[in-house]
Design a protein that fits this description.
Elements (H helix, E strand, L loop, with lengths): L2 H44 L5 E7 L8 E12 L2 E12 L4 E9 L5 H7 L3 H38 L11 H9 L15
Antiparallel strand pairs: 1-2, 2-3, 3-4
Length: 193
């Protein structure tokens, strides 16, 4: 048997093995995707609308040269759809460079990456909870601030006093006239409308 015949026989044997395992791999991948789809649907019902990312693989640790290379799983919105996603980011902090593969929805990411990421799904759910609590507190605080601002503006807009009052000094009037903002101004009189 020649060297070429040996290589051909080896390739044929490997391809035959690959042919037999491919349908099993595809079925296993489909099963994982189906399980993730169920989780995505449960999360969508909550209508959280927050993105979080959790690192599940680090390629360069403590290299001392400010480089990083991370693989992350998260919950985010991609192509108008919320769901679990995967991405790889790498770069150099010192030079402020960053590159990215993805993000992909979970089912669109490379299979090996999907497999490595699944152990971190509970961490994603935990981070979503933490982010939801933090965001809720911030929104409540901002709502209070905006309500106070709206109340102050409403008081001014519903006031019976004219906008221009005694507090407007002659210097301010002169500036307004000089800038062409007003031609004449009726002096404020108590009780006038």
């Amino acid at each position: 048997m020649s060297s070429t015949d040996s290589k051909t026989a080896k390739i044929q044997a490997h391809f035959k093995n690959l042919t037999s395992i491919a349908p099993v791999l595809n079925a296993a991948s489909d099963e994982l995707t189906k399980a993730i789809r169920g989780l995505d649907q449960a999360l969508k019902k909550l209508n959280i609308g927050l993105s979080v990312w959790v690192t599940f693989a680090v390629r360069h640790e403590d290299s001392g040269d400010d480089e990083y290379d991370l693989e992350q799983i998260g919950y985010t919105k991609l192509n108008g759809e919320w769901g679990l996603g995967l991405r790889r980011i790498w770069g150099n902090e010192r030079f402020d460079t960053q590159y990215q593969d993805g993000p992909w929805l979970f089912s669109d990411a490379p299979r090996d990456m999907r497999l490595r990421s699944t152990d971190k799904i509970p961490d994603v759910i935990e981070e979503l909870g933490k982010e939801a609590v933090k965001t809720t507190k911030a929104m409540q605080q901002k709502s209070l601030e905006v309500r106070e601002l709206a109340g102050a503006i409403e008081q001014i807009s519903t006031s019976t006093q004219p906008i221009i009052s005694k507090a407007l000094s002659e210097a301010a009037l002169k500036t307004l006239r000089a800038g062409g903002l007003i031609d004449t101004l009726t002096p404020y009189k108590e009780g006038s409308k």
